[in-house]
Write a structure and sequence with these properties.
The chain is α+β, with helices and mostly antiparallel strands. It has two domains: about 80 residues; about 240 residues, Bira Bifunctional Protein, Domain 2 (BirA Bifunctional Protein, domain 2). The strands form two sheets. Strands 1-5-6-10-9-8-7 form a seven-stranded mixed beta sheet, with helices on both faces. It has a three-stranded antiparallel beta sheet with strand order 2-4-3. α5 packs across α10. The protein is elongated. The N and C termini lie far apart (about 80 Å). The chain binds phenylalanine. The site of phenylalanine (PHE) has 11 residues, from β9 and β10.
């Protein structure tokens, strides 16, 4: 009898099943009332007394083994069957989920598009720049605070090499290799050494424009900016220019647009003012033209610069600047329908 039990133990160890039905057959064969284990139990009466202890232990061993094995097989076929549920070979591969343009790219393209229609061409330059193109050629005095460590990222051991803090450096690069007429639009990433928060980041994006020719006036600048504002924010948009200061423009101004939400009545977005500041601008300082090899007695020009994040915020009401650089797919997918 011991031999018979041993044979069954070996048999149970190697059991296999392809599906739930086969598992059930095995359960019936070994563990049901008329199964192998019960048959051994019934024969137990006839076992001589001195053998009872050992035979009893062996039957128990077989029973536990059979129960464990059958449970294990049942789990295995269940996993295989549910995994199969997802594998629908007849399913079509469409719709494929398309990527989306980044909101900053959408806004940048829109800005570039508007100025392209006015005859501006695209110019780009390096993000790792030298002091000359970012500051000196732009009429920043040697001790101008914008060169300070607070604003500028310097390359250690090369104080002349910096990460550009504005895209005016691209204007310098255009002027040094090209005589007027110049009409360029320069989008790009810029870096400033600021603590990262909902309202500030250590990098952001700008678009700057430069127009240099004979007889370029402040009126030309104002007209182009009005047209831009109305294309960007709608035909009823008004602009206002407030006097300001930049080292590279004289006179300089800051431009506000009528609030994109309330239209000027005052709301929470414009903090009751009715106006939103969107860009800096001015007539190119003659010293900048001269530093870049352009005769300031013959030519005049205007320049303007704006932050793309700022414009995107006004368009999409993104409350936290950090959203733009975190690449959270849920955020990016909100722009699926935008172009
Ligand atoms: N470079 C300026 C800035 O970064 C923006 C600007 C450009 C202002 C051109 C006036 C003219 O703030």
């Amino acid at each position: 009898m011991i031999e018979q039990i041993q044979k069954l133990i070996e048999e149970v160890r190697t059991l296999q099943a392809k599906n739930a039905e086969e598992v059930e057959q095995l359960r019936i064969k070994y563990l049901s009332k008329k199964g192998e284990v019960n048959a051994l139990m019934n024969d137990f009466r006839n076992v001589p007394n001195e053998m009872k202890r050992e035979v009893g232990m062996r039957i128990n061993e077989l029973k536990t083994l059979a129960q464990d094995k059958i449970n294990e097989l049942r789990d295995a076929v269940q996993v295989a069957e549910t995994a199969g549920d997802d594998l629908d070979l007849t399913r079509t591969p469409y719709p494929i989920r398309l990527g989306t343009r980044h909101p900053l790219t959408i806004v940048k393209n829109e800005i570039v598009d508007i100025f392209s229609r006015l005859g501006f061409t695209l110019a780009e330059g390096p993000e790792v720049e030298d002091d000359w193109h970012v500051y000196s050629s732009m009429n920043f005095a040697d001790d101008h605070p914008a060169r300070d460590m607070q604003d500028t990222f310097f390359v250690e051991a090369h104080p002349d090499i910096i990460l550009r803090s504005h895209t005016s450096s691209v204007q310098a690069r255009v002027m040094e290799r090209q005589q007027p007429p110049i009409r360029v639009i320069c989008p790009g990433r810029v870096y400033r050494n600021e603590a990262i928060s909902a309202r500030a980041h250590c990098f952001f994006h700008q678009v700057e424009g430069l127009y240099v020719d004979k007889n370029v006036s402040f009126a030309d600048l104002k007209q182009v900016l009005l047209l831009f504002a109305q294309e960007m924010f709608g035909p009823d948009t008004k602009i206002r220019l407030r006097p300001s200061y930049f080292p590279f423009t004289e006179p300089s101004a800051e431009m506000d647009v009528s609030c994109t939400i309330c239209g000027g009545k005052g709301c929470s977005l414009c903090k009751g003012a009715g106006w939103l500041e969107i860009l800096g601008c001015g007539m190119v300082d003659p010293a900048v033209l001269e530093a870049n090899g352009i005769d300031s007695t013959v030519y005049t020009g205007y320049a303007f610069g704006m932050g793309i994040e700022r414009i995107a915020n006004l368009k999409y009401q993104v409350k936290d600047l950090r959203m733009f650089s975190e690449n959270d797919v849920r955020f990016l997918q909100e722009f699926t329908s935008a172009n």
